[in-house]
Design brief:
Arc Repressor Mutant, subunit A; mainly alpha
Length: 511
């Protein structure tokens, strides 16, 4: 009887394990493995456990694979283990051992004449090369990833190319490949969750920086499908945050703020909550809601007190730079304090960008430049801004370039920068930065179209939508749409804010 129960347990627990693994609940899969695996567990189970550990704990995955017992007759499992060891050794910076295992895995896969296995080995080889920051060598293995014909092979072959392209600074092409890849994946199914999460996160980050209208609907589609497992909460946070800013740059402030709020709710890292609160503060400030902006800034500052910034991984440290930037025109002493705290943390070892990715440097240089200008260090601030601009130009990040130029124009008054700003903002006419440019050059608001001008004049008299519709003989729906466009033109979100801004600029006609 006991033997029967034990046998049933041995048969059933791997099914629970497999389900967790297939659904991308890797932490749960590892916990099931640890609770049930024996000293001579089946190779297939050990391989899945190692895959589940590979990204979060490569050292443990390495130990699991090295201690794994594979019968001599199980040649395919031997090759799969060697392929996984290629990436595991590379993730622990032992590239010599990685290459030894790569040679063994390739030799065995070719001997078995197994195309699917060759795809697996090719994918792990690409990973090994990118961990060594050698995209040229990674490309040599890309064709190998394409020999398989299974759904897994097709997806991971496409994914392999998308992770090579940023190392080559081909970001537009990366975005195109990511859109193609995500369109091939059903967001309502739980398979390929790792690829979906990383690809959606990456595409959202690119949509924040580049003008890619086709990206936003696909990101929305992926985020609207089956919820991602908790293992991918960091990716969900970054995807929501980036999508929020992508929509803000197209003038969709309502959804921008909604996504930034959602981002704050899905992360349990206080440092990232600081970043999200700073994002919301900046966004509120951008459309004239200064009181709201200050509430968000106060929340960010309170949260920052609970963060051990020396223990943060990397990118979340931008929270300190954001605080420094937001306080730049409010409290220069606090701004200087946050900048100093950021600088004392030293070099960032980034899990998001590869080690020598210049974009990470440029983001820090932009914020530092803005803060230095606020502190009165004009020469140092302009140097930081110009250095950041060169990098953004290289990647084609027009919006970032425009921000650098606007900050430089504000500091110098150099009118030669204005045509450059206009050109860089050609795709972002609904963004708040256009209003910043107008404010910086002291230009009046552009003339509204005739009907919008008439609606604006009625609004300035305090009339409700229904009364304006009757007066202008238009439907309330039409008037509501005109009001939305007027709000966009003035960079506000409410009638009260519109009237305040119009009054401050002398645009309200007196009786």
């Amino acid at each position: 009887m006991n033997t029967s129960k034990k046998a049933r347990g041995a048969r059933t627990w791997p099914r629970e394990f497999d389900r967790a693994y297939q659904e991308g609940r890797f932490q749960a899969a590892c916990e099931i493995y640890e609770a049930n695996a024996g000293p001579s567990e089946r190779p297939g189970i050990v391989l899945r456990a190692a895959k589940a550990l590979l990204h979060s704990d490569p050292a443990s995955a390495l130990r699991l694979l090295i201690n794994m017992r594979v019968p001599a007759s199980k040649r395919r499992e031997q090759a799969e283990r060697d392929a996984l060891l290629v990436e595991a050794f590379a993730r622990t910076n032992d590239f010599e051992s990685a290459d030894e295992r790569l040679h063994m895995a390739l030799e065995e896969a070719r001997a078995l004449n197994d195309d699917e296995l060759l795809t697996v080995v090719g994918y792990r080889a690409v990973r090994r090369c990118l961990l060594a920051e050698d995209p040229a060598e990674a490309r040599k293995y890309l064709d190998l990833t394409r020999v398989g014909r299974s759904a897994w092979s097709r997806v991971y072959s496409a994914y392999a190319e998308t992770i090579i392209l940023p190392y080559e600074e081909r970001v537009y092409e990366q975005a195109e490949r990511l859109i193609e890849l995500l369109r091939s994946l059903d967001p309502n199914r739980k398979e390929f969750v790792l690829v979906r999460a990383w690809s959606t996160h990456t595409l959202a980050a690119l949509a924040r920086e580049l003008y890619i209208p086709a990206a936003i609907p696909e990101i929305d589609r992926q985020l609207g499908g089956v919820p991602w497992p908790e293992d991918f909460a960091p990716n969900l946070f970054q995807a929501l945050r980036a999508l929020g800013w992508a929509k803000a740059m197209q003038g969709d402030y309502f959804n921008a703020f909604r996504h930034l709020k959602e981002a704050s709710e899905v992360t349990d890292t206080i440092a990232w909550k600081v970043v999200a609160a700073c994002d919301r503060s900046y966004l509120a400030r951008s459309f004239g809601e200064h009181r709201w902006s200050r509430v968000e800034l106060d929340e960010a500052e309170q949260l920052a007190k609970f963060v051990d910034w020396h223990a943060t991984l990397a990118e979340e440290r931008i929270g300190l730079l954001q605080l420094a930037e937001l306080f730049g025109n409010l409290d220069t002493a606090r701004s200087a304090m946050y900048l100093a705290r950021y600088r004392e943390l030293g070099e960032i070892k980034s899990p998001v960008f590869y080690r020598h990715d210049a974009r990470r440097t440029a983001y820090a240089q932009y914020s530092t430049g803005v803060v230095e200008l606020a502190l009165g260090n004009k020469k140092r601030g302009l140097t930081e801004l110009r250095d950041a601009r060169k990098i953004f130009e290289r990647f084609g990040y027009d919006f970032r370039v425009a921000r650098c130029l606007v900050a430089e124009f504000t500091a110098t008054g150099n009118a030669d920068l204005l045509p450059m700003i206009e050109e860089k903002l050609r795709n972002y006419q609904q963004s708040w930065l256009v209003n910043e440019v107008r404010a910086a050059i002291g230009a009046p608001k552009p003339l509204l179209p005739p009907m919008q001008q008439r609606v604006f004049e009625e609004l300035c008299q305090g009339k409700p939508t229904s009364e304006i519709a009757r007066a202008l003989q238009r439907s309330q729906w039409t008037i509501t749409n005109h009001i939305k466009e007027i709000f966009k033109a003035f960079g506000v979100r409410s009638r009260a804010a519109l009237l305040a801004k119009a009054a401050s600029e002398g645009l309200i006609r007196r009786a």
